[in-house]
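Human:
Class, as today's exercise, you are to examine the entry below, and be ready to discuss the fold:
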Amino acid sequence: MINKVVASAAVAVADIHDGASLAVGGFGLCGIPVALIEALHQGGARNLETVSNNCGVDDWGLGILLKDGRIRRTISSYVGENKEFARQYLAGELEVVLTPQGTLAEKLRAGGAGIPAFYTPAGVGTQVSDGGLPQKYDAAGHVAVASAAKEVRSFNGADYVLEESLSPDFGLVHAWKGDRHGNLVFHATAMNFNPLCAMAGRITIAEVEELVEPGELDPEHVHVPGIFVQRVVLAPQGEKRIEKRTVAVSSAASKAQGADAAAQAGA
């Protein structure tokens, strides 16, 4: 029987070396592999290249690697919630390859499927296809590295840009359930980019909230088959953050606020 379970997150990421490329699952702070990121941070690997929808926030997720200057380059779609990210990018400390979200998803899926490149209409007629997007600045604020122009072809009268797939050295993902063979099930929206990152990574490491025995998962409910996963580590549910919390005012508080407003108006 193939048992892919390892003893700890630290053991699971121990061979992630300086300069490695990582596909990291999650969307915002939903479904991110917190335990694996923390273990990687403690392990000390540097000059990393990350592929992720976003780069965490200043003190959570990939943000803790970024804060310590561990990330050299990132391929991402959305980076608006991380002030340190913006500072490093504008200061010339971080190379950023901004990629349309759907294109990023397909780059990972194609990499996992063994497809080297594909054509997409996303970005045609913009700097995505024409080149010139600032990827890295110098210390003086000038563009040091800009994106190159990409091949554009016409199919049935419409233009499409050629995008290359991604196959990072490692994939780091968070799943709700997993078995010892590496079969994974994700919960609700935490599925997001996780299956794609699991497919794309040459070595994929999955942290799971619940570890079950082979045969306990309904095959029809498996989102990622174990063939894509090389290591599994049990990481019981810990803190789960959200980027922005909006809380409704209770009826009692609302009445109290109304009474205060009325009293002030009467005064």
Residues 41 and 230 are 21 Å apart (CA to CA). Helices lie at 9-12, 34-43, 63-67, 83-90, 101-113, 127-130, 194-200, 251-266. Residues 9-116+165-234 form a domain with the Glutaconate Coenzyme A-transferase fold (CATH 3.40.1080.10). The chain has eight helices and 13 strands.
